[in-house]
From TrEMBL:
This is DUF1559 domain-containing protein. The keyword DNA damage does not apply. The chain crosses the membrane at residues 12-37. Residues 269-284 have a biased composition (Basic and acidic residues).
């Protein structure tokens, strides 16, 4: 008699211990792989940022070759300085008048948002001629205090509504417009050299106009000078970018320290909380005048995460000056450990945040005649 058919043996389900072991193994794998993935993504983003600066550098070099000087910022008129009516005004901007004047016509202050900057000026050398052509040079890029005439349009808004991917660092943010007007920003700034003169929000008196005590890195604004405030054209303290309102220009031959030892453009310091807002990121990418939206100075660079704590100090009124934050004047980045810097020879170097402040100051100035070797940065 045949034996009865026995039912197939069913394998028991995972035990709790086996399940916990599997979960633990998955957790360990994630812990091991996630930093590697994040590191790889940041390496790609930093490489893209480096490439952005190389493109900017190539455009700067081509502009200099074609025009005999580097693009400057802001260019308050085209092809020469003009007053508010568009008439030639070679006298340029008079900072010492109160209120300041431009060609004898009350106009804009040094941080006025109007004026075509160096990033706009290089567009034809970045295969962006069609964007450059949106500007209307028959109208002045400035206007006296008050409302502009009805229908006035010099093209600045049209230009600002065009995204230029080269001007955005992918580590910091995605390419996106800001505000109800949907205009784009810029993550890079030209180097204006050694900061001197008045600090925003402080007393404007001759006796006590500046940061007191000096900033944390010990390299604050010059305490005994008022000449050419914020214009970047004082001998021994010049930057690669100079204010063009008085006809000043900068040539590569002016880099007495050597183009490989001088910063041309770098990433600007910008806390996450200030994206698209006042304090270095409220203006359009194509203008913003002689302002920290498109230029920065010699202060030692800081990570974006540390930037909000770096405030200036005023002597009148005494105490902390939260309205005049130093990060607005610094270079910096969202990259771990440092920032990308475009040098005058067109190369891009990654400079650590731990760089000696005096070394960075020498990199920011093109004519201090102080010796420096590449291994210092």
């Amino acid at each position: 008699m045949p034996s009865p058919i026995r039912p197939a043996h069913r394998r028991a389900a995972f035990t709790l211990i086996e399940l916990l072991v599997v979960i633990a193994i998955i957790g360990v794998l994630i812990a091991l792989l996630l930093p590697a993935v994040q590191s790889a993504r940041e390496a790609a983003r930093r490489a893209q940022c480096t490439n952005n600066l190389k493109q900017i550098g190539l455009a700067f070099m081509n502009f200099e070759s074609a025009n005999g000087h580097l693009p400057q910022g802001p260019h308050d008129g085209h092809p020469q300085a003009v007053d508010a009516s568009g008439n030639p005004s070679p006298s340029g901007y008079n900072y010492d008048e109160n209120p300041p004047s431009y060609g004898g016509t009350t106009c804009c202050n040094a941080a006025h948002p109007d004026g075509w900057n160096h990033f706009f000026r290089i567009l034809p050398y970045m295969e962006q001629q069609q964007v450059y052509n949106l500007a209307n040079f028959d109208l002045p890029p400035i206007w006296p205090t008050g409302s502009r005439p009805s229908g006035y349009n010099n093209g600045e808004n049209d230009v600002a509504r065009v995204a230029i991917p080269t001007y955005t660092c992918p580590t910091r943010r995605a390419i996106e417009p800001y505000g109800s007007s949907l205009m784009y920003r810029n993550d890079y700034a030209g180097c204006a050299g050694f900061f001197q003169g008045l600090s925003y929000e402080c007393s404007t008196s001759e006796e006590n106009p500046r940061f007191l005590p000096p900033p944390p890195n010990g390299l604050g604004p010059v305490a005994d000078e008022r000449a050419n405030p914020n214009k970047g054209n004082t001998g021994g303290r010049k930057g690669a970018i100079v204010w063009s309102g008085q006809g000043w220009t900068r040539k590569l031959s002016d880099f007495r320290d050597g183009t490989s030892n001088s910063i041309l453009v770098s990433e600007k310091s910008l806390p996450d909380s200030r994206h698209g807002s006042d304090g270095g990121d409220n203006e359009r990418w194509n203008n913003s005048g002689w302002d920290e939206d498109c230029i920065r100075w010699h202060f030692v660079p800081v990570p974006d995460s540390q930037a909000p704590a770096l405030n200036g100090f005023c002597s009148d009124p005494a105490g902390g000056n939260t309205g005049s934050t130093l990060w607005r004047r610094m270079f910096g980045s969202s990259h771990p450990g440092g920032l990308n810097c475009l040098l005058g020879d067109g190369s891009v170097r990654f400079i650590k945040f731990t760089i000696d402040p005096s070394t960075f100051r020498r990199l920011a100035v093109i004519d201090d005649n102080e010796p420096m070797s590449a291994d210092q940065f």
